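Reviewers asked in the last cycle whether our approach scales beyond single polypeptides. To address this, we selected a multi-component target totalling 482 residues and predicted its structure end to end. The input consisted of the following lines:
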Amino acid sequence: MPNPPNNLHVCLSPALIPQYSVEDYVVVIVDIFRATSSICYGIENGAEAIIPVAEVEECIAYRAKNPEYLLAAERNGEVVEGFDFGNSPFSYTKEKVAGKTVVLTTTNGTQALHLSRRAKRIVIGSFLNLTALSLWLKTQNDNVLLVCAGWKNNFNLEDTIFAGAVIEQLKGNNFKLDDPAIAANDLYLLAKGDLPAYLAKTSHSERLKKLGIEKDIAFCLNVDITTSIPVLEGEKLVRLS
Amino acid sequence: MPNPPNNLHVCLSPALIPQYSVEDYVVVIVDIFRATSSICYGIENGAEAIIPVAEVEECIAYRAKNPEYLLAAERNGEVVEGFDFGNSPFSYTKEKVAGKTVVLTTTNGTQALHLSRRAKRIVIGSFLNLTALSLWLKTQNDNVLLVCAGWKNNFNLEDTIFAGAVIEQLKGNNFKLDDPAIAANDLYLLAKGDLPAYLAKTSHSERLKKLGIEKDIAFCLNVDITTSIPVLEGEKLVRLS
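The resulting structure, written as structure tokens, was:
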């Protein structure tokens, strides 16, 4: 007899996390523009750990205790004064982060992580590590919940479409999809021919353009340029071994 | 100079209503399987008013004060004992409801209504009155928020796809879409060739089939068989004149 299917579900916004029993799932946090893309890139490039926090003040508190930590924070597209860099993935190169611990300020992503903390395991996804992540999820034989960090606690297209890309790799492997997963996968199939063009019509993309970070956006849509999977251990995201 | 655009937004679940300033919008409540379809059909067929309530007990309290009211309530697909009928649209025929007031028990729909009560105006949408509703919305020159009642406080496909159908009729008329509206419209365009086939893959449809109400589902996907628009006045849904 075949094994009963595992659930493959998508939570479209942090505000919907309470609708799920997160303790029954391996959770993937998704915040494509730009937090989880930068985290994947930083861990790939040898960062020892990345610590996501919600507020600039928390970030500063970490440095008081750990003067060697790098601090990353932006407000309105500018690096906050006294910080080492902002949230651009280009800040997470080998030269800058190898062997270092980075404290990263990210509102949407941190909230999604915090609300998912009772999950069996929490890993980080982005287009950068799409296939590596999907292959690993297939080996888990467990329920998977893709949590979209979204925008201001609501649905956004880029995170949903990434969730749909993971589903495209997992479906057919004895998973049962919920309605948000079906929708996310269908939207991905519409968008995949030209991700940048599809996402150019979103409100979020417009907002990010105003911040002058089109290069970041383009970088975050690179598929499979990394293979490491960041995993939450305590308060730190580290490379899954 | 052209007028500034109005917002055309989609709220994918009652749990996301707090993310919107509902007082800035004309709100459309959407609960395709089956509450808002039954309401549209009942109002079309001459019901004087339909009063949506969340609990069977509230329903009974209405009758104590108004013995002439008809009561509609189901639990697990069966008419509750002592009630006049359930939630099937086939209960809302002329013969049964003309000139009557019906108290309807509906969990998802009532919650969506309640959370939207500060809206400029609240109307009811379903595939049955799709074009009449969309034409009326175009004349309002106001922000529109399509509120999907969803399933257990989460996203469902049928309500989202209906929202996308309304957007298909409104877009191009100086509206600005948010990401959920773009997604809903794209999903509608995928589904519109064969709505029943597209929706057959949803979990909700599977659940409804188990209740033996496939005929209700098919009926709720009839497009433009009614022209009246139910509108909330006080606690009652009545025909918009």
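The first strand of chain A starts at residue 6 and ends at 11. We regard this as preliminary and will revisit it once experimental data from Aim 1 are available.
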